[in-house]
């Protein structure tokens, strides 16, 4: 027996199609934010724009859209529903309009269909359905900008302006199993994610005539040795999140003339698990570099960020948290099965909520394929199912 909350599948899929038809690569979300705002406004759900400004590095100006359902009991918990409205920039390999929203065999195609306009449509219709219920706790819906950009500025601003402070837990409807480690399938709850730090290594050698390399210190040669050493760092592991990882992403430098190159630069990705900090990542890198005993001067630096707390730390949500319990029983009642439990390999806005804001955070979202690639699609029945699970779990969790 299943007990399905009142989500209209046609309305949900129509909404998803409209969202996919609005191009919204990160930093260009004005049109889709207005659409989400007006959709909520037409239903009497009192949306408000929440300005996001980052003048220093990106020059970005945009708006999240927020809406709140006030519960009857100020002591009851508050649940945050967070979904990003932006997508990656459409890739070139699409053989059709990346904003087509074409539906075939239960799949809806488009850039961002799975990541994460499916999840956005699901929380919008779930929020509309929750507005019809008498809940003790509050629901805060946050349709945020710039998740796919370099700093996740929309959710960063949400956290920075204190919106997470009065929340007790968060649901993020990012695509689920497709981005999780291991083989899991929907229905699934993703209860944590690794963290990620990006750092630069600058290598300064000493120039000399290129015909006499022994008279200089070759920064390119040393940078290659550094890349090799960093890739071999002994990283941490965690019972749920698995192993950390190190991946040198970029190596540049050198000389166009016949000179021993005096400068090179490496950019390195480090994924970490719970228990590893930015300071640990730096110490590991510095130790590996020191062990090489190079003649070049080598320095490790972390990338420029809008502020020092803009970082993707790792987190794990307790499997016994009341929201997880509510989501488990909602999944059983809607889908008739227990959800799989998984963890993410990479990072997103959920790290800001789960780590920075210290909110118990659960990811559950409709699955699809080709995320961030040509031919991206989402399964429409999973979009509807996620909306139903969110309504049932929120009703249970908020009392
Ligand atoms: Zn996403």
From TrEMBL:
GO molecular function, one term: hydrolase activity
Pfam families associated with the record: M20_dimer, Peptidase_M20
Keyword vocabulary terms for this entry: Hydrolase, Metal-binding, Zinc
Cofactor(s) needed for function: Zn(2+)
SUPFAM superfamilies with a match to the protein in the record: Bacterial exopeptidase dimerisation domain (SSF55031), Zn-dependent exopeptidases (SSF53187)
Keyword Plastid part of the UniProt annotation: no
Residue ranges of every copy of the Peptidase M20 dimerisation domain listed in the record: 192-292
InterPro entries reported in the protein's UniProt record: ArgE/DapE_CS, Bact_exopeptidase_dim_dom, Peptidase_M20, Peptidase_M20_dimer, Peptidase_M20A
Source domain of life: Archaea
Family of this protein: Belongs to the peptidase M20A family.
Protein name: M20 family metallopeptidase
Organism: Halomarina halobia
């Amino acid at each position: 027996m299943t007990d399905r909350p009142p989500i209209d599948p046609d309305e949900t899929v129509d909404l998803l199609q409209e969202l996919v038809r609005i191009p919204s690569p990160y930093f260009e979300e004005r049109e889709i934010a207005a659409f989400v705002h007006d959709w909520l406004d037409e239903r009497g759900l009192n949306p408000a724009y929440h300005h996001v400004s980052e003048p220093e590095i990106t020059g970005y100006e945009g708006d999240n859209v927020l809406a709140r359902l006030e519960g009857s009991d100020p002591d009851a918990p508050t649940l945050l529903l967070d979904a990003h409205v932006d997508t990656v920039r459409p890739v070139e390999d699409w053989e059709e309009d990346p904003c087509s929203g074409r539906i075939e065999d239960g799949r809806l195609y488009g850039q961002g269909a799975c990541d994460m306009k499916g999840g956005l449509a699901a929380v919008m219709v779930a929020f509309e359905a929750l507005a019809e219920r008498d809940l003790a706790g509050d629901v805060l819906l946050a349709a945020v900008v710039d998740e796919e950009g370099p700093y996740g500025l929309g959710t960063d601003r949400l956290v920075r302006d204190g919106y997470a402070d009065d929340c007790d837990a968060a649901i993020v409807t990012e695509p689920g199993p497709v981005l999780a480690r291991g083989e899991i399938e929907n229905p699934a709850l993703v209860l944590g994610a690794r963290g990620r730090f990006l750092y630069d290594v600058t290598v300064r050698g000493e120039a000399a005539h290129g015909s006499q390399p022994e008279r200089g210190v070759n920064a390119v040669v040393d940078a290659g040795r550094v890349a090799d050493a960093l890739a071999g760092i002994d990283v941490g592991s965690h019972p749920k999140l698995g192993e950390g990882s190190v991946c040198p992403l970029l190596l540049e430098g050198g000389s166009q003339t016949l000179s021993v190159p005096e400068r090179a630069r490496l950019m390195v990705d480090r994924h970490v698990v719970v228990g590893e900090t930015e300071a640990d990542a730096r110490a590991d890198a510095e130790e590996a570099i020191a062990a090489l005993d190079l003649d070049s001067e080598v320095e490790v630096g972390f990338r420029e960020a809008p502020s020092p707390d803009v970082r993707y730390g790792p987190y794990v949500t307790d499997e016994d948290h009341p929201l997880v319990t509510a989501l488990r029983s909602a999944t059983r009642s809607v889908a008739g099965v227990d959800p799989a439990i998984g963890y993410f390999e990479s990072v997103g806005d959920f790290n800001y909520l789960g780590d920075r804001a210290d909110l118990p955070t659960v990811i559950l979202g409709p699955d699809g394929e080709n995320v961030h690639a040509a031919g991206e699609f989402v399964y429409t029945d999973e979009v509807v199912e996620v909306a139903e699970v969110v309504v049932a779990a929120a009703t249970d969790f908020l009392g």
